[in-house]
Amino acid sequence: MTTPGSDSPTLDFYWGSGSPYAWRAMLALELKGLTYGSHLLEFSKKEHRSEKMLALNPRGKVPVLVHGETVMYESVAIMAYLDRAFSEPPLFGTTAAETGLVWRLVSEHDGYLAPLGLRLARPIFMGKVEENREDIDAAIEELNKELGQLNTRLVSSPWLAGERVSAADVFFWVSLQQVIRAAGKPSAKDLNLGVDPLSERYPELAEWSERFGALPGVDRTWPPHWT
Question: CB–CB of 36/78 below 8 Å?
Fold first, then answer.
C-alpha cells in the first residue's frame, strides 16, 4: 500500500460489515494502494449511530472517510474525493470520454442492477421468499437481462469501461457478489438466479469477477461475517 508523506493528513475509514456502500469505498482505498485507519463498526451495537459518528455523519450511516479536516460520507462522494486527492490509478477516467463512460455505467448500475439486487437479496436474507415469489421471479428475469448485457460488454475488453479497472467495475462487482451470496442461501434453493455457477451462463462475467477479485488488496475488503 502507498503511504502518504509524513506531512500529509491521515486517512481514517469507518465502515460496517456487509454494507455494499462501505465495500465500494474500501475497494477504492485498496485499489489506490492507500494506507488508512480501518474502523469496523458493529451495527448490532448501533456504533454507527454513536455520538462520535453522528458528529461525522448526521445521517448515522456508513461509510465515512476522514482525511485531515475533510469529512466525507456517501460512497460515491468518497470515491470521487479519493480520485481527485490521489490521482493514481484513476477510477473515473482521465479524458472526457472515459469519465462520461464510467459515470454512465455507474448510473446504469444504480438505476437498474442495484434495485434488482435488492428485490432479490432482501427477501432471501430475511427468509421471506414465498410471500415475495412473484416479484422475485420478475426481478430474476430482469436481472439476467442486465447480466447478459454485462457479459457481452466484457467480450471485447477486460474491464467494463475499457482497458483498465474503474469505479464501474467496483460498483457492479460488489452487487454481483451480493447476488451470488443470496443464491447460496437455503431459502433460495428453489430459485434459479442464473449465477450458480456464474461460469455456465456468463463465462466472460465469471472471468471478470475472478480477475477483479485477484487484484491487490481486494481480499482485504471482504465482509468479515461472510468469511
Answer: no
